[in-house]
Amino acid sequence: MLVSAANRSSLSYRPRWRTDSGGWATVGKPRESTPNISTVSPQELGEMLARWNDSALEARYGDAPGPAFAWNPADDIAPLDPVTALKALDCLEYQCAEFEGWDDCEAYRFAQALRRSLISRLSGYDDAEWGVVRWGYAAAKEDARAKIEARKLAQEAAR
């Protein structure tokens, strides 16, 4: 699922992450405007994530590795909403977080890049303000007073 979430992203939202060798990578075809990004196949990405997941489960529970990852292009066709993919990503990170080296590996950097990509696809994200202009109790109180005042003015105008 996570491989499909990364692979079927539009080019503007496709995750890019720092590789262990210090370069940049993306799954599938990179944008033409970013030629210095290497391409990782969906199969390679899935194998990397499966290795980390297997290592984490073995370290934590003594589980034997699961079946080999096999990417199926048909999986990219199935509907996939960002929230479901974020939940699957949380699951992977929960399992891998206890494994030594997780927060300094390429799989972790991919997970963070995919998380940013998925969040940017949430409904309403594009419409939200960039940056926080007003925040906290004082701003909320001021906004509430302004709404009450606007209602009063609207009621007076309706009379």
What features would you describe in this structure?
Helix content is 49%, strand content 7%. The protein is mainly α. It has two domains: 2-128, no CATH class; 132-159. It has a three-stranded mixed beta sheet. Helix 3 packs antiparallel against helix 4.
What tags apply to this protein structure?
mainly alpha; 49% helix; 7% strand; 3-stranded mixed β-sheet; 2 domains; 159 residues
Give a brief description.
With about 160 residues, this protein is mostly helical.
Task: Describe the secondary-structure layout.
Elements: H1 2-7, E1 16-18, E2 24-27, E3 37-40, H2 42-61, H3 82-96, H4 106-119, H5 136-158
Parallel strand pairs: 2-3
Antiparallel strand pairs: 1-2
Helix pairs in contact: 3-4
Distance between the termini: 58 Å
Integer count of domains? 2
* Share of helix, binned: 40-55%
Radius of gyration equals 22 Å
Shape: elongated
Low-confidence stretches: none
Mean pLDDT: 85
Summarize the biggest pleated sheet.
3 strands, mixed
Number of strands: 3
Structural class: mainly alpha
Report the portion of residues in β strands: 5-15%
The number of helical runs is 5
Largest sheet, spatial ordering of strands: 1-2-3
One letter per element, helices H and strands E, the order comes to: HEEEHHHH
